[in-house]
Amino acid sequence: MARRLAAGAEEYLSWLAVERGRSVHTLAAYRHDLAAFEEWAQEHGVDPGAPRTEDVERHLHALRSSGLGPAAVARATTALRGLFRFLVDEGAGSSDPTAEVRSPRLPRRLPKALTEPEVLDLLHAADGPEPVDRRDRALLELLYGTGARISEAVGLSLSDLSRDDGLISLFGKGSKERLVPLGGPAQLALDRWCGPDGRPLLSPARWARRSDAEAVFLNVRGGRLSRQGAWAAVRARAERAGLGQRVSPHVLRHSCATHMLAHGADIRVVQELLGHVSIATTQIYTRVSPEHLRRSYEAAHPRAGALARNGAALAG
Fold first, then answer.
1. pLDDT tens digits for 125-181?
2. Residue tagged active-site, from 224, 237, 253, 254
3. Which of 106, 114, 161, 254 ranks highest by number of CB atoms within 10 Å?
4. What is 7-89's CATH number, 1.10.150.130, 3.20.20.80, 1.20.1250.20, 3.40.50.2000?
5. 35: Cα within 13 Å, side-chain hemisphere
6. Does the annotation count 285 as an active-site position?
7. This model's pTM is above 0.85
């Protein structure tokens, strides 16, 4: 049974659950972090409801010294900062002792991208004559071919595919529309899915919701495919391809961007394709291997070859 925290902390967790809709896992993690702080405070003669800034910093230092990783310390910092801001807002605290406390900087993780042969294995794992096979192949081709978010893919309507210029409409965050090109394999897969032996065989005699009639991707019951359903379909095909738990819809988005940049696409084009507001978000895909960086430099820079030759001549 979870330990009962101080009244203010319990109210804070209830507020997170009811007003902010935090998940059960997040609430359990925050409870653990707050309980650890209360135990530390009691051991060191500190009032856990009114610590000083230096007390919070000493506690976080103790967590780091115990071997806790940066991500776990950052989460503990967030839990404490949220608690004391909540107490101040509710009039239960006079000041926020975490206001001057800095969160640890987390190392920026590179996106997980599949190799190009692995993508082909994944696509071939959806080969088959059944309507669900055609649907999953079209979904995978779309996710990898356009870099679409899973919410954008399942939100597609048939009218979004009706353009004659090789583009489709995607509606991203904030319902912002962007046009993206649809490659030949993705177009072919969508044509097969929307053809007589695909989507029509999953279409019900009577639609439960009017919007489902326009959905590009359907579930086996004839409703619009949900994000969870699409995620499960991608994961099932990955298992069949022998890729285990490595693959998710977002990994296909990462792979699309990574492979385009590796083949020389302009970063601004990739930014537009993915719908990134800031190019800084797109730049995380530009971290390539030193060998690829060297080859790209030698192929593209007008002085790279000359410098290499001059260096060789001087060495001789």
1. 999 999 999 999 999 999 999 999 998 999 999 998 877 788 888 887 667 788 888
2. 253
3. 114
4. 1.10.150.130
5. 12
6. yes
7. no
